[in-house]
């Protein structure tokens, strides 16, 4: 891979709490609904391999442009596969991504997926991610706020809902909880909750 165009503004919680996953260098981290997040830059430059899934092809084209890498593009069933050294991004419907296509995953960093989905989809999503990653450990970020003040996404997800989705297959640890600086989208007060999910 060519030298990365390093960006700032990665998710602070990634930097502060990623060690809780206890991963070895070279571990493969799945970032669902990744978009063009700068978290991928951070993961790659810290020696991890990255897999991602995203609906927007434009976002992934921008991601590789930011990385200053020209991807190989192929087809995996109904998905497009953008790949380069240490990175595989699957473009299309996340629910079309199977464990066979995705391959082995060592951990999941869910910073924007669960919170992006409406409540009726979150149950299916949680089950799907658990299945295709073979119950890999997760670092999960959620927000809690008064949804009568602001409509999602990101949606407000309380502790009870997180427990409902994941307690059957994971041991859940509430790693941190802190106020969102300046409120969520600058509109309403919110708290960011970080969860560690392990078998």
What does the model show?
The protein has a single domain (12-198), classed as Vaccinia Virus protein VP39 (Rossmann fold, 3-Layer(aba) Sandwich). 25% of the residues lie in helices and 29% in strands. The chain is built from six helices and nine strands. The protein has a nine-stranded mixed β-sheet, sandwiched between helices. The radius of gyration is 16 Å and the shape is globular. Residues 1-8 have low confidence and may be disordered.
% residues in beta strands: 25-35%
Q: What is the CATH third-level topology name?
A: Rossmann fold
Helix content: 25-40%
The count of strands amounts to 9
Give the number of helices. 6
CATH architecture tag? 3-Layer(aba) Sandwich
Topology:
Elements: H1 12-17, E1 28-32, H2 39-45, E2 49-54, H3 57-67, E3 72-76, E4 79-84, E5 87-91, H4 99-102, E6 107-110, H5 119-132, E7 138-145, H6 159-166, E8 171-179, E9 190-198
Highlighted features:
disordered N terminus; 199 residues; alpha/beta; globular; Rossmann fold; nine-stranded mixed β-sheet; 29% strand; 6 helices
In short:
This protein is α/β, with parallel strands linked by helices and 199 residues long. The protein has a single domain (12-198), classed as Rossmann fold (3-Layer(aba) Sandwich). The chain contains six helices and nine strands; from the N terminus they run αβαβαβββαβαβαββ.
